[in-house]
Amino acid sequence: MSATLTIHSAGPGLTVQDTGRPGHLGQGLSRGGAADPLALAEGAALLGQPPDTAAVEMAGMGGVVSADTDIRIALTGAPMQATLNGERLTWNASHTLPAGARLAIGGARQGTYGYLHLGGGIATEPVLGARSAHLAAGLGRALAEGDTLPLGPDHAGETGQTLDIADRFSGGTVRVIPSMQTDRFAPDDLKRFEDTEFTRDPRGNRMGVKMRFDGAPFAAQDQLHILSEIIVPGDIQATGDGAPFVLLSECQTTGGYPRIATVIPPDLPRVAQARAGDTIRFAFVTRDEALAALRDHANRLAQLPKSTRPLVRNPHDIPDLLGYQLIGGVTTGREEP
Amino acid sequence: MTDAPAFPAIRDVGLSGLLVTFADTLSEPANRAALAFRAAVDAQGWDGVQETATSLASAFLRYDPLTLDRDALAGRLRDLLAETDWTRAPLPEGRRLWTIPVALGGDAGPQFDEAADAAGLTPDQAREEIAAARTRVLTIGFAPGQAYLGRLPEHWNIPRLQELTPNVPKGALVAAIRQLIVFARPTPTGWRHIGQTAFRSFRPDAETPFPLTPGDEIAFSPVPVRDIEALQDSDDGGATVTPIREEGGPA
């Protein structure tokens, strides 16, 4: 029998996300998919599932959900306060959600996009080969109170697993490489671009985020006469008001503003996860350095399924040791506050 | 800053994209070259090339840079570019002519008169020219299935507006810079809203989600606005489609 997840309340930015729909760029549809693909892969690893398994993406805050049968869950991405029947759950870990129990996920303590992964994955009908909502394209919609999601059959049984994650939830330095119009910017402006401390503007979504900064606008030579051209996630457009705008997974497929640089894929989650006011700096690297970083990233992703380990808790943090099942591997994985 | 590149130019798009650009302004030959060159790249079936696309005057390749060396791929592209004059290549096979009903002006196209004026025409002349125009799908982009159609005669080279119109509805016909677009989604825009269609250029649940293909031709047949309203629930919006026989092609 397949399980069903019910949404009892939902923050404004809850959507189903997987690895998106590659292959439709020429038809005007960007790939979309999870804003933080690394968090999607981490959750899949915690539950021993394929890396493209669909999960619930939560922008800024979560909601309250329950399932009609015991299911496994994992929580990754921007750390949020999560409680199960009043007990706090460890983030970046897998847990059991008993039938009927209410899982409440609050606001993000850091970062923007948190993920709720479900054993068996979300089994909604794929559209154009994926389950991801692509709101900019009109595919799917945000989840709302009263929605139910079918889950697939769950073949693996383990919970109480955790893994070490790369911190990417409070801005920082992101690596960029030159883009097709980088050489249309004056060398002084490119240096200023690297020297400027940007903050993420409050306006930002899955399509992209704007950067705030003090100083003169960034503009390219002959800017108004650039023909609209293919855009890829990570591209940084110098928009009409001269502010850099970093494009994310749900970006448009073409654009006419000049690209000053492109964020390398391993560092893009750092931009997506930054919250309004978090600081971001851009640092040019060579193509060879970027390729090496991409290779490292691909290796880390491949190693993720082998990187999980049991949640280990400090006995002093457990108020009632005797009440706990101490046989290895069968704890609930719940963490006391 | 460097001088403008010589065309065709090969440039990087991020870490995993190469763009072959035939001109820095839109022209019929450059668009034709982009379409033909993309088709030629597709026909090569190169391992590691994951996706191709065209924009107005470029062909784009997405590839896996961990398995396909960038310089080797660029070399193959240069060899392919040297094989022929791509600006004179034939248009893609299987092109179709779409005739799409449109209500022009009035509430259905609040900026129609203004657009006609900017083109130096009376509203009646503008209506006649839109009805007579046979435009080509130059590229599909920005939003899913959304076609950029062109080109209209030179006097339609009307600039985009400085102030964006906050929300132009799905199916709207808009005009600027000798081009027309039927919007796939409600969109804020600097293009002038001159008419309304019931044509859906993105149909996620249909067998053919993206009905239009670059190279297809589009004609607009003016109808009263009530006809458009009556067609709102149909995907096709009353459009008819017929195959185009290429000159010199099979009869």
UniProtKB/TrEMBL annotation, chain A:
Single GO term (MF): hydrolase activity
Residues forming the Carboxyltransferase domain are 26-298
- Spell out the Gene3D superfamilies in the cross-references: Cyclophilin-like
Signal peptide as annotated in the record: none
Q: Which UniProt keywords apply?
A: ATP-binding, Hydrolase, Nucleotide-binding
Taxonomic superkingdom: Bacteria
Q: Which InterPro entries match?
A: CT_A_B, Cyclophilin-like_dom_sf, PxpC
Region Disordered: what ranges? 1-31
The record, for PANTHER family, names:
5-OXOPROLINASE SUBUNIT C (PTHR43309)
Report the protein name in the record. Biotin-dependent carboxyltransferase family protein
State the species of origin. Answer: Psychromarinibacter sediminicola
Automatic annotation (TrEMBL), chain B:
Which Gene3D superfamilies has this protein been placed in? 3.30.1360.40, Cyclophilin-like
Q: What is this protein called?
A: Allophanate hydrolase subunit 1
Please give the InterPro entries that the UniProt record associates with this protein: CT_C_D, Cyclophilin-like_dom_sf, PxpB
Gene source species: Psychromarinibacter sediminicola
- PANTHER family referenced in this protein's UniProt entry, alphabetically: 5-OXOPROLINASE SUBUNIT B
What SMART domains does UniProt report for this protein, alphabetically? AHS1
Select a single GO molecular function from the record's annotations and give it.
Answer: ATP binding
Keyword Transcription listed? The answer is no
Carboxyltransferase domain boundaries: 8-212
Coiled coil start-end: none
Keyword field: ATP-binding, Hydrolase, Nucleotide-binding
For the region Disordered, give the residue spans.
231-251
